[in-house]
UniProtKB/TrEMBL annotation:
Entry protein name: Tetratricopeptide repeat protein
Superkingdom to which the source organism belongs: Bacteria
InterPro entries, per the entry: TPR-like_helical_dom_sf, TPR_rpt
SUPFAM superfamilies according to UniProt: TPR-like
PANTHER family found in the cross-reference section: HTH-TYPE TRANSCRIPTIONAL REGULATOR RV0890C-RELATED (PTHR47691:SF3), REGULATOR-RELATED (PTHR47691)
Signal peptide region: none
Spans annotated as Disordered: 341-362
Length: 362
């Protein structure tokens, strides 16, 4: 069994004032006031952590970066390794969001060590979860699949719905990316149900996005779009800027799979602008790939398409997104195979044309 979802990143007095479904503008305002009124280094660390998380979720990456570093410095001054771990967890999560995955791994690894030494079970679990998600995004499934399962069992053992939803969604995503659509759908639907029962609206929004993805792959376009609309309403209510942009990118994916290439192009353009505004290169690169594919379907010059695919492949290698790079390679192969199929072969009865002899020079 599990209880209602809660947000352990809001600590001290903030934990009583804020909940998992508080809008991030509300979190930012409350945490900023708490930071201004903080009387001790530990109070400053906790308030700065909440400021960092609110700004990160709102897509304000510069402000989030400043805040998590301040949280870490204040926690170090307070001599509290648990608070230091939470600050590094926030910094590692921000680094992953910004596409700097090696930095994310380093920060989260340090967070795990600090949390383990401090005895803060939740900080330790969240930091391990961050490491697992970073590896999953990179496509390193063999390294993190077991860790996802362990975290799911921990969530069940302690009745932590939010953690269960996160781990279950991650496992579902790995099944989806490796072709296990039935298992992925089962897990996404269960995580959406658990999130709803635990009043974890954010977790439900992400889970619904996963359900919509699998339904779309299976050809259920209308159901997928309806679920994405439900998730979008949650994102807007909670000011989830990053989740909203990923929702729009998934909507574009659904349009693309349904052969609605004009709608896909328009929606990829929207998500691309959103990701660029919040400086999120992973989402930006994925939106660019969708845009390239949509334009190709609408008749764009093939050489221009291939040139942009080459640039995208370099970006995916730089960021460390293996699954996305595989998608580039697959689409390039599809394009070149189609070009070969459309190029007429020489007729077997064709003869070499004869031209008049060139007169010899006199």
């Amino acid at each position: 069994m599990y209880g209602k979802a809660f947000a352990p990143e809001y600590q001290g007095e903030l934990g009583a004032a804020l909940g998992v479904n508080s809008s991030y503008e509300e979190v930012l305002a409350t945490a900023s006031r708490a930071h201004a009124d903080a009387g001790t280094p530990l109070e400053r660390a906790r308030a700065a952590l909440a400021v960092a998380e609110a700004n990160r979720r709102l897509g304000r990456v510069t402000e989030a970066g400043d805040a998590w570093r301040e949280s870490y410095r204040s926690a170090r001054t307070a001599g509290d390794p648990g608070a230091m771990a939470w600050a590094l967890w926030s910094g590692g999560t921000l680094a992953r969001q910004c596409g700097t995955l090696p930095l994310a791994r380093r920060l989260l690894t340090h967070a795990v060590a600090l949390a383990e030494g401090s005895g803060d079970r939740l900080a330790h679990g969240y930091s391990l979860a961050g490491l697992a998600e970073t590896g999953r995004i990179q496509g390193d499934y063999a390294a993190v699949a077991e860790l996802h399962e362990q975290l799911l069992e921990q969530g069940r053992a302690h009745g932590e719905a939010r953690h269960m939803v996160w781990a279950m969604s991650g496992i579902a995503q790995m099944h989806r990316n490796t072709g296990g659509y039935d298992k992925a759908l089962e897990l996404f639907e269960e995580s959406a149900r658990i999130a709803a029962e635990a009043d974890d609206f954010r977790g439900r929004a992400w889970s619904l996005r996963g359900v919509a993805d699998v339904l779309s792959v299976q050809g259920e376009t209308d159901r997928a779009l309806a679920l994405l609309s439900e998730a979008e309403a949650i994102c807007r209510t909670m000011d989830l800027a990053s989740a909203l942009a990923y929702n729009h990118k998934m909507r574009a994916n659904v349009f693309y799979r349904a052969g609605r290439y004009e709608s896909a192009r328009e929606t990829y353009t929207l998500s691309l602008a959103e990701f660029r505004e919040m400086q999120e290169p992973r989402g930006e690169a994925l939106s660019r790939l969708g845009l390239v594919k949509s334009r190709a379907r609408l008749g764009r010059d093939e050489q221009e398409t291939l040139a942009e695919l080459a640039a995208l492949e370099k970006d995916f290698v730089r960021i460390g997104l293996r699954h996305a790079r595989d998608m580039v390679i697959a689409f390039r192969a599809e394009l070149t195979a189609r070009e070969a199929a459309e190029t007429p072969a020489p007729r077997c009865d064709a003869t070499t044309p004869r031209y008049p002899a060139v007169p010899a020079r006199s």
